[in-house]
Specification:
Order of helices and strands: HHEEHEEEE
Number of helices: 3
Pfam family, one: 4HBT
Helix content: 10-25%
GO molecular function, one term: 1,4-dihydroxy-2-naphthoyl-CoA thioesterase activity
Number of strands: 6
CATH architecture: Roll
Radius of gyration: 15 Å
Shape: globular
Protein name: Phenylacetic acid degradation-like protein
Strand order of the largest sheet: 1-2-4-5-6-3
Oligomer: single chain
Low-confidence stretches: none
CATH class: Alpha Beta
GO cellular component, one term: cytosol
Structural class: alpha+beta
Keywords: Hydrolase
CATH topology: Thiol Ester Dehydrase, Chain A
CATH superfamily: Hotdog Thioesterase
Mean pLDDT: 97
C-alpha cells in the first residue's frame, strides 16, 4: 500500500503542531501514524467528562476532528491548508474511565475536499463513536 502523506508526518510532528491548543488541554495524545491512518487517544477524566461522569460527546467530536483535520493536513500538498466544512458523530456507547482511542482513515482525498472517517473505541475495543468529517483543501495564495 502506498502512503497517502504529502507532508512529513510523525507522532512527534503532530504532537508538536498541537502544542498550546485544546488538543493538549484535553490530554489528547498521538499514538501512531500508518500508511493510511492516524491514531490518537483521549483520557476519560475530570477534563473530559460531563456531569454524569461519562465522556462528553463534544470531547469525542474534538478527538474525531483533531484526527480528521491532522490527517487531511498531512495528506495535502506542501503549502496547502485545510479547514473543516462538516462533521457528524454517532455516539454508540458511553465511556466512564480509561482511554478512548480514535483511528482516522480517508474515504476520499480530492484536490479541493477530503472526507475522513474516524472510529473511537474504548479499552475493550468496543466502538464508542463513529464520526465523519469533510475538509476543504485551501490552495496557497
Amino acid at each position: 500500500m502506498t502512503a497517502i502523506w504529502k507532508k512529513p508526518v510523525s507522532v512527534e510532528s503532530a504532537t508538536h503542531y498541537a502544542q498550546n491548543t485544546a488538543i493538549t488541554h484535553l490530554g489528547i495524545e498521538f499514538l501512531d501514524v500508518g500508511p493510511d491512518y492516524l491514531k490518537a487517544r483521549v483520557p476519560v477524566d475530570t477534563r473530559t467528562v460531563q456531569p454524569m461522569g461519562l465522556l462528553h460527546g463534544g470531547v469525542s467530536v474534538v478527538l474525531a476532528e483533531t484526527l480528521g483535520s491532522m490527517g487531511a493536513y498531512y495528506a495535502s500538498p506542501e503549502g496547502h491548508e485545510v479547514v473543516g466544512l462538516d462533521i457528524n458523530a454517532n455516539h454508540l456507547r458511553s465511556a466512564r474511565s480509561g482511554w478512548v482511542t480514535g483511528v482516522a482513515r480517508p474515504i476520499h482525498i480530492g484536490r479541493s475536499t477530503h472526507v475522513w472517517q474516524i472510529e473511537l473505541r474504548n479499552e475493550a475495543e468496543e466502538m464508542v463513536c463513529i464520526s465523519r468529517i469533510t475538509m476543504a483543501v485551501l490552495t496557497p495564495r
